[in-house]
């Protein structure tokens, strides 16, 4: 007899495989759902499991996007000429060139984002609490503004990505598979990491970092590793998303701090941060709410989302998973001592 966990994973796998077949008109929307799941899950490494509320994870999303674009283009054309506003060249990529460039671009984006996270970590991890949040937010905003000044990569005008060489239906399925594959890979890796000493160490940092250091836990190393894992997947999904959209520019697409940068935090809070499934559930609920408000409350969608976030933060801070664990602790393997009230 299958366990509840196996049934859950089987159901998600079936939806991931057959979703585009059952709902072909919503293939792109479901792909973006997987992007949201990945963003929320990787943000929770620091924000939930470690207690470091980063507002700058979107930096790796944008950096991955641009790193991938540079790799894909530079393999076959001069990047400066490709991004020229005067149309210096008329680029055309063969199937082989496109898929080779995209594959190397995704890998390069992930690795590049890790390197950037390690460099930034030496600076921002000297901050704690609200100072860390503000510091990482400043990094994301600065990255967008700096990128807009670099003409070599299109500046504020952006870059048109290489055109997908196959038909439109194949294009939707192809990028859907990449989004689903990255989200599933990130979830499986995090599930394993949280079950190891890494999970215990980052939870100790969240509970009391000074005591964790006194116990001999190399807190800086764990913080850097956690951020590097998040950066890798954010860089990879940034590369995929940039190609899926087909055009990248600094503020609205590559470094969308006011949208995706806030969404990933809101999703983790809605589902319950500090849990494996909370960010996943939060991403699903948030995406459904967002799509519904964008469809039926156009013009008021930001007001509706704002009210939901206020209610979540003021009255529902533990999120859905936290509420369920309090309401039904036995279903989550939590033993409650009724005499002392402690678990």
Secondary-structure blueprint:
Layout: H1 4-22, H2 27-47, H3 58-74, H4 79-82, H5 95-124, H6 129-147, E1 159-160, H7 168-194, H8 197-214, H9 219-245, E2 247-248, H10 250-254, H11 260-271, H12 278-296, H13 301-315, H14 319-327
Antiparallel strand pairs: 1-2
Helix pairs in contact: 2-7, 2-9, 2-11, 2-12, 3-5, 3-6, 3-9, 5-9, 7-9, 8-9, 11-12, 11-14, 12-13
Describe the protein.
By secondary structure, the chain is mainly α. The chain has one domain (4-257). The chain is built from 14 helices and 2 strands. The model has no long low-confidence stretch (mean pLDDT 89).
The major β-sheet equals:
2 strands, antiparallel
Class from secondary-structure proportions? mainly alpha
* Tally of contiguous helical segments: 14
Q: Any idea how many domains?
A: 1
Kindly state the number of beta strands. 2
Radius of gyration, in angstroms, nearest whole number: 21 Å
């Amino acid at each position: 007899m299958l366990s509840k966990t196996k049934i859950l994973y089987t159901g998600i796998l079936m939806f991931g495989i057959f979703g585009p077949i059952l709902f072909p008109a919503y293939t792109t929307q479901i792909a973006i759902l997987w992007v949201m799941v990945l963003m929320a899950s990787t943000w929770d490494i620091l924000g939930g499991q470690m207690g470091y509320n980063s507002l700058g994870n979107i930096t790796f999303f944008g950096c991955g996007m641009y790193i991938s674009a540079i790799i894909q283009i530079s393999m076959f054309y001069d990047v400066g000429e490709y991004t020229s506003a005067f149309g210096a060249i008329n680029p055309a990529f063969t199937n082989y060139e496109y898929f080779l460039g995209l594959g190397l671009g995704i890998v390069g984006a992930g690795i590049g984002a890790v390197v950037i996270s390690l460099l930034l970590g030496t600076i921002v991890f000297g901050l704690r609490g609200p100072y860390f949040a503000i510091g990482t937010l400043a990094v994301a905003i600065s990255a967008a503004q700096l990128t807009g000044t670099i003409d070599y990569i299109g500046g504020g005008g952006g870059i048109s990505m290489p055109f997908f060489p196959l038909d439109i239906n194949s294009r939707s399925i192809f990028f859907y598979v990449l989004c689903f594959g990255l989200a599933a890979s990130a979830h499986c890796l995090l599930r394993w990491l949280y079950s190891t000493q890494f999970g215990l160490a980052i939870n100790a940092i969240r509970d009391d970092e000074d005591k964790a250091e006194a116990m001999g836990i190399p807190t800086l190393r764990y913080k850097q590793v956690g951020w590097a894992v998040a950066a890798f997947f954010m860089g990879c999904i940034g590369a995929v998303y940039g190609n899926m959209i087909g055009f990248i520019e600094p503020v609205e697409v590559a470094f969308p701090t006011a949208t995706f940068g806030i969404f990933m935090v809101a999703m983790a809070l809605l589902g319950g941060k500090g849990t494996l499934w909370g960010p996943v559930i939060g991403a699903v609920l948030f995406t459904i709410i967002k799509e519904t408000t964008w469809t039926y409350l156009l013009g008021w969608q930001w007001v509706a989302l704002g009210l939901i976030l206020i209610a979540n933060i003021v009255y529902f801070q533990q999120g859905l998973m936290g509420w369920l664990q309090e309401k039904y602790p036995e279903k989550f393997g939590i033993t409650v001592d009724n005499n002392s009230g402690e678990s």
